[in-house]
């Protein structure tokens, strides 16, 4: 027995565009953060692991 499909939330074209722009901005911010952490780790070198407990 097949249940009827209920329509979900349907976004307008403007809402889809804004959602895409937000997603790109979040991805870009995450990428910058990852690059920043990587750069700091490379600058500090192996000394990152040599710390007192």
Euclidean distance between termini CA atoms: 63 Å
Instruction: Determine the number of helices (DSSP H or I, runs of at least 4 residues).
Output: 1
Q: What letter string, H or E per element, gives the SSE order?
A: H
Number of strands: 0
The overall pLDDT, averaged over residues, is 87
Radius of gyration based on Cα positions: 22 Å
- What percentage of residues falls in helices of 4 or more residues? 55-70%
Helix/sheet category: mainly alpha
Low-confidence stretches: none
* Overall morphology: elongated
Describe this structure in words.
The protein has 53 residues and is mainly alpha-helical. 60% of the residues lie in helices and 0% in strands. The protein is built from one helix and no strands. It has one helix spanning 13-44. It is elongated.
Describe, in short, the structure shown.
The protein is an all-alpha fold. The chain is 60% helix and 0% strand.
Key phrases:
mainly alpha, elongated
Ordered list of secondary-structure elements with their pairings:
Elements: H1 13-44
């Amino acid at each position: 027995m097949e249940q009827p499909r209920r329509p979900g939330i349907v976004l307008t074209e403007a809402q889809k565009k804004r959602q895409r722009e937000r997603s790109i901005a979040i991805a870009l911010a995450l990428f910058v953060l990852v690059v920043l952490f990587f750069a700091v780790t490379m600058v500090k070198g192996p000394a990152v692991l040599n710390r007192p407990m």
